[in-house]
Amino acid sequence: MKLTSLYIYGFGKWKDYSLSLSSHSLTVISGANEAGKSTLQQFILFILFGMPPQKRSFYQPKTGGTVGGRIIVQTDSYGEIIVERVDDRHQGEAICRLPSGETRGEDFLKKLMGGLHKSVYQSIYGFNANDLQELTQLNGEELGEVLLNVGLTGSSQIHQAEKNLDKQLNEKFKPKGRNPELNRMLTRIDELAARKSRIEKEIGDYQLSVERLEKLDEEIAAVDEAREAQRRAYYSHMQIKKALPIIQNYHQLTIHEAERPVPKAARHHMGDLQEQLLPLQSEVKSLQDSQSAKEIRLKNINSEVHAYDRKDLSIFEAQESEYQQAEQEYKRLTLQIDKYNDEIDKEMNRLDLSVDKTELQDYEFPFYLEETWRALREEEQLLEQQEIKAAQESEALRRQMEHTQGQLQSLLTGSISEKQSVEHSELIDRYIHSQPSHEGKSNTKKTLMMAALITAGSLFLALETNQIIPLLIGVLTAAGVIVINRTGSPGQRAPSITKEMYMKAREELQQYDQAKGEIIYLREQQQEQNDKCDQLKKWNDEWAGRKSSLQLKIKEQVKRYPFLVDLKLVHWEKLYHLLKQVKDRHQELMKLKAERQVSADHMRTIEEQAARFFKEQNWEHNERTVSRQLQLRKEFVKDQLQLNEESIQLKNEIEQLQLQQERLETKIKPLENKKQTLFNNAGALSITDFYEKLDHFDQLQQQLETKNQLEHQVNMMLTSQEQETFQVWVTPPTESDIAFNLEKIEAELDKLQQDTKQYEQERAKTEHQIKYLESSDELSELTHQLALEKESFHEAAKEWASSKIALEVLSKTKEKYQNQHLPNVLKEAQTYFHKITHGKYTRLHLDGVQQEIVVQDEQGFYFKTEELSRGTADQLYVSLRLALAKTLAEELSMPFLVDDAFVNFDSSRLSTMLSIIEQISRQHQVILFTWREDLLELLDGESINTFQLSNV
Prior knowledge:
This protein is α/β, with parallel strands linked by helices.
């Protein structure tokens, strides 16, 4: 994925601001502090990953407006995608617009970003000076592990998390420790359990009483369940006792199937059938009468119709209007043909070409001929413009070369020679060394102090010995020291060079150095001007060849179209359109003539057919016009068509009447069958007999309804389970059976009541005994404390187990990464580190025991990370980060964001680092934010995008 442009609606100091990054893959955005570099970087992260509302409010523009904007990214799978995110739209979620116009949401953007979170993206594809600053907070051993863990998070967070987890585990528990929290809790639980056990043994049979109480509760529950079952049985017998009279009436009322031969709705069905049959039978009679009348009329029409085919009649009817249309079309085409002939003659006269309209038809004017003539005209104009431009550029270049030569000659004559510059430099050095220095003055003071000390010492020795010799020796020695110092000091020698000579030599030497740089620049300009002169000459030769080629193309066209010989090239394109119009008009004229001939042939055909018709009918037609003949034939055809139409209509109506009768017969037949079925079911021979049978059936129906009501009452009083238990629909119980069962149930209930009373008395006694045993406060307090301690221990143990699992998962994750990815990262980082340090450090190693990274220099010596200088450690860290990002970018290519990460690099290593950045940008986009303007001088300005931000 590559970022091609961005537009900021409002974000911090930026409002209605845009950048285009599509030219190159390396972009350098420079500017002083407060210029907005970090704000631009945060804007890119905001569009790609979003931002919490509170943090978005921080970037609210001071001049008002909404927070948001859009970026355009180029992808391999979808092409160019617009990603827009605005604070007050769609709850701050992103909107992605595809080239097809389709709109996607935040989930699509996350998929496009490979599921990366913001922190992971910054850890892999972005780093800055703050990341390097974090390394100063670690000691030597920790630094090695942080550089090792850069492959997992890009910072020291893994290392810190692992230290915290290990510390928490040691504070919670140690197998042989005493001070950790879990160890102390286990000791406390053992002590409380021992005291509780001792007290319980003193109490005696407390546990036996508790078990007896639980057994009594189970026996009481079983008795209660048995009592409930007996109560349900007692209620069921009472219900059956109440319903017994209804059940007996139900069994006394019996109805045989043989006494119900007619369905319940037979009377209603018979009435419906009669109502449906009578209208249908009447309608059949009416249809039969109508069919007879229409058959008589059809017979009369058939006797009046002639033997012409209907298709011929239709043709005869339409020929009158066809003849009139053909006649009018013939006249119209004749007028248009005459008009076209006049227009073509006028156009050919206006063109005044050496070709007539007949010869013009022999020439072809294909569609590409216009483009060819236009291209020749444009090339001629281009060549003319180029000649003018070349002359202007040659004149301008000549003036520039004269001006440069004049400047160069002026500098050469107004400056000292190189030999004189060497002499002036030597003069300046002699003058500077001839001046007394601060060190010389200091030596003089030291000499005087030494002479004074010698004199004082000799004086003290003379006074002690009462002799003058020590004093004389001391004075002479002090004088000798002073003399030696004065003769050895160069500052005491008389200067041979005056200050005016020194200042003049210095000024002329400065002028020489300045003129030397300008001379080099002017000579470079002269070389560039000479190169331009050669290029202009080469271009002039090239355009002369093109001009010769153009003349050959023009001659070729004139050879194909001789009438162009006296016409300028600028008019050819317009002439093409005029000639094309004339030729097209002539082709249209030929089409019109062909159409007129078609109309004439059609008129002649109709006239011949009309004459043949009159002859067949024995009608006089010689004295009549063609139009009158066609009109008479049309009237005849109209009468015949009307008779044919009426005949067809009558046939269709007769067929419809027959179909209606058949449909009515179809409706009547099932009704008659249903009526006969009702007779058969009732065993009746006529309507009167049928209704007598129905009256007898109604009496039987009343008895059946009474039986259904009794069945419903029983269902209301007894459940389905009770009906099945007592078999009420088969062999219901007698009153004596029910009374016997009730007495038996009552006796069982009395016995269960006595058992319950006995168990409850024994339970109360046992419970009283347990309460007495538990009345000791010490046992209760110990029990409560033990439960609390165990609960606390379980919670602390869960926390310890969670931390233990987290530490193991973290260790396994580090180990898995090291085995799969870290070797490739270290190999790539070794290449970068070797280049940055100009070959001083050749290899990177991973210490398997200490889990630290060590480096090897060109002499074979190994260094730990704490033994490296601050700048070299930063360069090692940057190499690891670049290697990690490049390794992972092979699977997911994303833009790199680098923000002033090279502050501790010297100029030489900085130049190498920037060349590595340029190399990476050939495969992956890199956006470099920096305050250093000198970086642009170290980069290839033609292959990068550069933007200078102002802090205004």
